[in-house]
UniProtKB/TrEMBL annotation:
Keywords: ATP-binding, Nucleotide-binding, Transport. It comes from Kocuria gwangalliensis. One of its GO terms (molecular function) is ATP binding. The keyword Nucleotide-binding applies. Residues 22-252 form the ABC transporter domain. It comes from the Bacteria. Belongs to the ABC transporter superfamily. The keyword Nucleotide-binding applies. This is Energy-coupling factor ABC transporter ATP-binding protein. InterPro entries: AAA+_ATPase, ABC_transporter-like_ATP-bd, ABC_transporter-like_CS, ABC_transpr_CbiO/EcfA_su, ECF_ABC_transporter_ATP-bd, P-loop_NTPase.
Amino acid sequence: MARTSGSSHYDPLVPHASPGSLYCANVSLTVDSPAGPFTVLDRVSCEFTHPRTAVIGLNGSGKSTLLRLFNALVVPQSGVVRVNSIDPVAFPREARAAVGFVFTDPASQILMPTPIEDIELSLRRHVPDRHERTEKARDWLVRMGLEHRAHHSVFDLSGGERQLVALAAVLAAEPQVLILDEPTTLLDLRNQLKLIDMLDDLGQQQLISTHDLDLAATAQHVAVVHESRIIAQGPPAEMIPRYKSWCAHGFPEWESP
Ligand SMILES: Nc1ncnc2c1ncn2[C@@H]1O[C@H](COP(=O)(O)OP(=O)(O)OP(=O)(O)O)[C@@H](O)[C@H]1O
C-alpha cells in the first residue's frame, strides 16, 4: 500500500496522528436547523489506517459529514483532524490536493461539457503535454468501459455513466487518499463489481461511506456511525452482522461520558 508521509505539516502536538492515516480526535460539529441547534458529529475520534475502511450507518447518521472532514468541506467547531498528517482546517488546499473525493452525486463534480474534457482537466497538474493528456484521458475512459461516450455531452450520460466519469476524473489526479461517498448508489451490479475490482487494483488508502454491505465486506475495517457518533469499529465479519442486528432489533443506548 503506497502512502505518502512526506508532509511538512506533521504536528508533534498530535502524537497519534501517524503519517499515512485518516485521524480525528474529539471532533464535534453543531449546525443551526429550523428546529434549533443540531449536532451532526458528537465527540468523534478515529484513526483509519487500513487500506480500505468502510463507514456504514443509517440515513442521516453522519457518515458523509465524517468523510467531508478530511478534505476541509466540513470544518468542526472543536477537535483535531489530520489526513496524512495534514491539518485540513489550517491547510485546506493541501488537504484537497492529497484527498481525491468522489461525491454521491456526480453532477457536483463534473465541470466540463464532455467526459474526455473533464478527465483532461484533472490531468492538467500532472501531465503538461496536451496530446499525452488526451491519450491518458482516453485510457481512463477505456478502463471505465466508456470510450464510446468520450465526446458526448455529460447531460446525455446515465447517472451510472456520470458516476464512473467522476470517479475516473478523481483517480486521474493521482490523489494520496481516496474518499468515496456512496460510490455504488447509481451503478448496476456489473458496474458495482467492476468498481470493486478497480478499487482492489489501486494503491491509495480508501475510505468509503456505503449502504452496500457487500461493498463494506470488502474493507479490512468497518466503522459504524449512529446518531453522530462512531459506536463500533472492527473487522467486517464482526461489524456487519452486529449492524444488521441493530437495524432489526434496535441500536444500543449511548452513555454520555
Ligand atoms: N450544514 C448542515 N445543516 C443542517 N443539517 C445538516 C448539515 N450537515 C448535515 N446535516 C444533517 O446532519 C445529518 C447527517 O448528515 P450526513 O449527510 O452526514 O448523513 P449520512 O449518514 O451521510 O446520511 P445518508 O446515508 O442519508 O447519506 C443529517 O440529518 C443532515 O441533514
